[in-house]
Design a protein that fits this description.
Radius of gyration of chain A: 13 Å
Strand content of chain B: over 45%
Largest interface: A-B, 20 and 23 residues
Order of helices and strands of chain B: EEEEEEEEEEE
Oligomer: heterodimer
Distance between the termini of chain A: 38 Å
Shape of chain A: globular
Radius of gyration of chain B: 13 Å
Strand order of the largest sheet of chain A: 1-3-8-7-6
Strand content of chain A: over 45%
Chain lengths: 110, 112
């Protein structure tokens, strides 16, 4: 079983829509989780960290379900600028590394 | 601060050639990482260095070597390039632990 699994999408939504992505992880010992955003042909950049049940930052909400071993990212009131690939990354039990998912592609259209 | 810098930005190699990808960070970070990213495969860890003087293998270390030259610099060497190593290579660093990783702009490598 892969360490991290994400629906690759693509998700195509209109401006103003609410969209949610899920990410499942296999290591039940993972304690912290991260969402990174990657624009086309650019490097990944940290979007949000999740250490407990969830985190909210403006239009973005990340939620953690430890029992089912998944984290979700909810984007409200989507903007054109939200178009990107979103990478899920749980911290592994081995010190010093994250495990990145393959990413979910989002396109927001006008 | 420049953050994380990588050189070169692009490189074309022939099979069997060698090269070194350079990475430097000016944030006084302790940990540094090398990833490769292929279409549909996501980011895969090649090697990482938790602190100056230490290096550890990641998921896909075969065909690569690394050197943590000092706290700032972490280089990745391909001794004999193969077409399977065609990829985009990202270097990243963190102050401590793996959480908030700052990535460099990447090196696009094509091996013919």
């Amino acid at each position: 079983r892969k360490e991290v699994e994400q629906d690759p999408g693509p998700f195509n939504v209109p401006e103003g829509a609410t969209v949610a992505f899920n990410c499942t992880y296999s290591n039940s010992a993972s304690q912290s989780f991260f969402w990174y955003r990657q624009d086309c042909r650019k490097e990944p950049k940290l979007l949000m960290s999740v250490y407990s049940s969830g985190n909210e930052d403006g239009r973005f909400t990340a939620q953690l379900n430890r029992a089912s071993q998944y984290i979700s990212l909810l984007i409200r009131d989507s903007k054109l600028s939200d178009s990107a690939t979103y990478l899920c990354a749980p911290k592994g039990s081995t010190l010093g590394r994250l495990y990145f998912g393959r990413g979910t592609q989002l396109t927001v259209w006008p | 601060n420049a953050g994380v810098t990588q050189t070169p930005k692009f490189q074309v190699l022939k099979t069997g050639q060698s090269m070194t990808l350079q990475c430097a960070q000016d944030m006084n970070h302790n940990s540094m990482y090398w990833y490769r990213q292929d279409p549909g495969m996501g980011l895969r860890l090649i090697y990482y260095s938790a602190s100056e003087g230490t290096t550890d293998k990641g998921e896909v270390p075969n065909g690569y070597n690394v050197s943590r030259l000092n706290k700032r610099e972490f280089s990745l060497r391909l001794e004999s390039a193969a077409p399977s190593q065609t990829s985009v290579y990202f270097c990243a660093s963190t102050l401590r632990g793996p959480e908030t990783q700052y990535f460099g702009p990447g090196t696009r490598l094509l091996v013919l």
